[in-house]
Protein: Phenylacetate-CoA oxygenase
Amino acid sequence: MVQNLSAVGEQSEDIAGLAAFEAILAEDSRIEPRDWMPEAYRKTLVRQISQHAHSEIIGMQPEANWISRAPSLKRKAILMAKVQDEAGHGLYLYSAAETLGTPRTKLTEDLIAGKARYSSIFNYPTRSWADVGAIGWLVDGAAICNQVPLCRASYGPYGRAMVRICKEESFHQRQGFEILLELSQGTPAQKQMAQDAVNRWYAPALMMFGPPDDDSPNSKQSMAWNIKRFSNDELRQRFVGMMVEQVKVLGLTLPDDQIRFDEETGKWQHGSLDWNEFKEVLAGRGACNSQRLERRREAHQDGAWVREAAAAYALREQRVEVA
Ligand code: BYC
Structure:
């Protein structure tokens, strides 16, 4: 009998909670951690935010490979700062995911066990210094295009984390653009190095926006919940339009001769992408998937003493407070 009463109580709370949740979405306001939310909304957020956090953390690796080989002290300092920013982004996002009840330790365990997703783009190798420029310009550029609308995501902690991340990403994109510009205005060999890097990173950067809309199972619901504001294809074509102008200033070209603006739809058209390659990368068979995960595992093991020391310090502080 008691059980039945509590079930009835929970059910009416859910009905009231759902009405409040829907009212918040209808007025385009924000859901906060203590607000009632449907389990599916919570799950979707943990999925997207944790994948995003993992991308920032794994995404440190392709560029970090070049810190020791950056061509000058100034370039080294800039690159180190950029890679550290990415670590910071990962931390804001893990914190946002924790407000939904999933601890960072669990998310990290899933990542190093190979059970979690992170962005496909970070499974490609960085072959030359120009790749660092191409990552900044194209990868951070795609990230900004995807993430500016996420500043308005309905979940408060996620949207607020994105505001700061986007500001930092703007600096990252400019430093990438500047590396490519300098190479492009250098010797013919340097210009070719910049062009090769753009040729290699262009299509993978377009795939960062996710599968085509017809093949995107999560988009519709995420847009109904005001998490995503635009579809994958919508953002992808918008990004192509931005890059078409910027590449002219660089004096380089995009490796796609089918780009054109369609006056009728008001959208950019581009050549087709190799979605089989995308699926292979997602299935763990990209050029660097195993290397990235192995490196992340090693870093986690190597950092065990830092976690132990931090926990011991926190315990000591707690005891001092109690005494
Ligand atoms: N790579 O239904 P869909 C950075 C998965 S880091 C891998 O369209 P959704 C940076 C998707 O998860 C920036 N997986 O999904 C860092 C789903 O699988 P599950 C990273 C992908 O969520 C360091 C399935 O495919 N940015 O900038 O509606 C250095 C079906 O897709 C990808 C973010 O994380 C992909 N590219 O839309 C430099 C942005 N695309 O989960 C730079 C936040 C799709 O059902 N995330 N999948 O098993 C988002 O905006 C959305 O999650 C996505 C996908 C647009 C990526």
